[in-house]
Write a structure and sequence with these properties.
Elements lengths: L7 E3 L14 H13 L5 E3 L11 H15 L5 E5 L4 H13 L4 E5 L8 H14 L5 E5 L1 H4 L5 H10 L3 E6 L4 H9 L7 E4 L5 H7 L3 E3 L7 H12 L3 H17 L7 H9 L16 H13 L5
Parallel strand pairs: 1-8, 2-3, 3-4, 4-5, 5-6, 6-7, 7-8
Helix pairs in contact: 1-2, 3-4, 9-10, 11-12
């Protein structure tokens, strides 16, 4: 299976909504063009910053159809799958492929803490349901309460031909390195899932990163990857250092509202988060704005 397209900077696209929490199609289409014009290498629909956990399946299908249509084949589109029940994940994965996604990205089940055998069966069942379609694992222990072990990743990478890579949001750089080292023989692709570690991941052999900040500063984020790949190691690191305080300021907001806050501050209007989340407090908005000013992105 050709997996060369899995690379570069891939934003987990936010879902623009109006005051009635209906998908704002015009804003979504505009946002897709904004990021592609910024040089991104793919779009992840329904990542954590896409607020997938707030959406019904019919809403997800509507959003995916808009993304695929507006993208018009310019970059790969990945269908994010994050549900507890295996059968629902299978249904979502197949819906994604039927509606034009180029691959799927599957988060480990939330709330539960499955055994190694149960988690393997979960991922393997989804992979088997979409044979021939690329599937990425999505390791996010901060949101699910547990991680995907190196053993499970290695087993899936070697036993399932279409489990071709993963996004690692653990923030544990040793873990990321082991995911890469143990699966080099099968050309397994590892994407960094921490915006502050894009450069660090590239030095270890990641093929790129899934970055929430690429929703509002795509050119800066892409420059970290592009400069590194061009051999401008110092320039890549400097771009990473410009990004880090902007990204770290987001942690003072409730998750994941700061991505939309930053986009709105920069004029890329994507609406508010779904309730019960609200935009950041006035004090935090001032902090977000201050970081953009310091970085030279606002006056």
């Amino acid at each position: 299976m050709n997996v060369d397209f899995i690379k570069g900077i891939i934003p987990p696209i936010v879902t623009p909504i109006d005051e009635n929490e209906k998908v704002d199609e015009k804003a979504l289409r505009k946002h897709i063009d904004f990021m592609i014009d910024g040089g991104i290498s793919g779009i992840l629909a329904f990542g954590s910053n896409g607020e997938f956990y707030m959406q019904e399946e019919d809403e997800m299908e509507q959003v995916l159809k808009i993304i695929v249509d507006q993208n018009a084949g310019r970059v790969p589109v990945y269908m994010g799958v994050g549900a507890i029940r295996t059968s629902k994940c299978i249904r979502l994965a197949n819906m994604g492929m039927e509606n034009g996604a180029d691959g799927v990205s599957v988060l480990q089940p939330m709330f539960l803490k499955p055994s190694e055998d149960e988690l393997y069966t979960h991922f393997a069942s989804i992979a088997d349901s979409i044979k021939g379609a690329p599937m990425l694992l999505y390791n996010n222990p901060g949101r699910t309460g547990y991680g995907i072990s190196q053993d499970i990743v290695e087993r899936l990478a070697h036993e399932k031909d279409n489990v071709v890579g993963m996004k690692d949001s653990s923030g544990d750089i040793t873990q990321t390195a082991e995911y890469i080292r143990r699966n080099r023989d099968v050309n397994f692709k590892v994407l960094c899932g921490k915006d502050t570690l894009i450069y660090s991941g590239l030095t270890l052999g990641t093929c790129g990163a899934v970055c929430s900040t690429a929703n509002f500063l795509p050119k800066l984020i892409v420059s970290i990857y592009d400069k590194f790949m061009a051999g401008d190691i110092k320039g890549s690191l400097e771009a990473q250092f410009v990004l880090n305080p902007i990204r770290l300021q987001m942690d003072k907001s409730s998750f994941p509202v700061a991505t939309k806050d930053y986009a709105n501050l920069l004029g890329e209007y994507v609406g508010n988060p779904y309730l019960p989340n609200k935009p950041s407090t006035e004090a935090q908005m001032a902090g977000l704005r201050n970081q953009l000013v310091k970085g030279g992105f606002l006056k």
